[in-house]
Structures are given as structure tokens and as C-alpha cells.
């Protein structure tokens, strides 16, 4: 192949990459405009939830995030409703507005890349550190549910036959518990 052909191929590849990036940005903007967040108060009927309401909350077009809460740093991972991991590794983000925005942007990009229309964040309520994150996410279009800490502790061994706490393992476990409906409101 001569240099002129290589240059032409590189230009074509560059144009295709730019078009793909534009399509991803358009998808992400569409997802942002259509996202709806719910809290437990929005979903409850007469102060109670029945099993069918919880089961119908998680849908196939939903990206499920699991978040391990820390005092200064949170870790989040993403799965789909079939349990396939959509994030290569856990995303670490700070417990402040910039960190929340980083996690939000990351989740929206994953949703766009995997054709998901809604996002739900499952978290294990640890102390008071989760309050700001939950309020920020709900106000920015991401539904938030809580996973019982006892359920997390009991199922920890299923993942890798170890009871050890790992900030990078726990988010995936929490996301799977959301998928399997071990949530409370």
C-alpha cells in the first residue's frame, strides 16, 4: 500500500470515528432528556409496596448501578438486567458535587453505549454518607434504591467464596442485589 492510500484510509477512519462520536453524544443527550427519577415516595401506594410493584420497577431498558458508599470515596459498577457487567472496572468518585457529576456522566455514557433509557442506582446505606449522593442523583434524573446491608453481608461469599470486604467487589454485588429485587424503599 502506498502512502497516498494509507493517508486516504486514515482520513476515512477519522471521519467515521467523528460520526460515531456524534451519534453517541446525540444518544446521550436523548437519554438525558427522557430520564425520569423515582424515589420510594413516588412509587409507594398507600404507604406500602407489593412484590409486583418492585418487580415491575426494574425493566430491560434499565442500566443498573451498584455503589459502595465510603466517607470520602464511593465506588460504582454497572450491569444490565441479565447480570452482564457493562463496566470494565469500578469507577471511583469523590463524595462531592464534582464526583457525583463524574459518576452521572459515566453512567449516561454507558447507558448510551448499551441502548439503555433509564438508570437506577442501588446503594448500601452506610451511615449518613449516602444522603447527599442519593439526593443529587434523584435531582439529576437517576432513580435511587437501597439494598439491605444484611443482604450484602450474607451474599458476599457467593461472588468469590470470601467474606473479605473489597470496595471494588461490593458495587457489583450491590448491583446484582438490585437486579434480583433485594431492595427496600
Automatic annotation (TrEMBL):
Superkingdom per UniProt: Bacteria
* Gene Ontology BP terms: DNA transposition
Q: Which GO terms describe its molecular function?
A: DNA binding; transposase activity
Matches recorded under InterPro entries: Transp_IS110-like_N, Transpos_IS110
Q: Which Pfam families match?
A: DEDD_Tnp_IS110
Domain named Transposase IS110-like N-terminal: residues: 65-179
- This chain belongs to which protein, by name? IS110 family transposase
Query: What organism is recorded for this protein?
Result: Candidatus Fusicatenibacter intestinigallinarum
Amino acid at each position: 500500500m502506498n502512502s497516498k492510500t494509507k493517508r486516504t484510509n486514515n482520513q476515512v477512519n477519522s471521519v467515521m470515528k467523528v460520526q460515531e462520536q456524534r451519534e453517541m453524544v446525540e444518544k446521550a443527550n436523548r437519554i438525558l432528556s427522557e430520564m425520569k427519577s423515582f424515589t420510594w415516595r413516588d412509587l409507594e401506594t398507600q404507604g406500602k409496596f407489593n412484590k409486583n410493584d418492585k418487580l415491575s420497577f426494574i425493566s430491560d431498558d434499565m442500566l443498573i448501578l451498584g455503589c459502595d458508599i465510603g466517607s470520602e470515596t464511593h465506588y460504582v459498577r454497572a450491569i444490565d438486567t441479565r447480570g452482564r457487567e457493562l463496566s470494565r472496572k469500578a469507577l471511583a468518585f469523590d463524595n462531592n458535587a464534582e464526583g457525583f457529576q463524574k459518576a452521572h456522566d459515566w453512567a449516561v455514557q454507558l447507558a448510551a453505549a448499551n441502548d439503555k433509557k433509564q438508570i437506577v442506582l442501588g446503594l448500601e446505606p452506610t451511615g449518613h454518607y449516602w444522603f447527599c449522593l442519593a439526593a443529587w442523583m434523584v435531582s439529576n434524573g437517576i432513580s435511587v434504591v437501597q439494598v439491605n446491608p444484611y443482604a450484602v453481608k450474607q451474599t458476599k461469599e457467593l461472588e468469590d467464596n470470601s467474606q473479605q470486604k473489597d470496595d471494588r467487589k461490593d458495587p457489583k454485588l450491590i448491583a446484582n442485589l438490585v437486579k434480583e429485587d433485594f431492595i427496600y424503599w
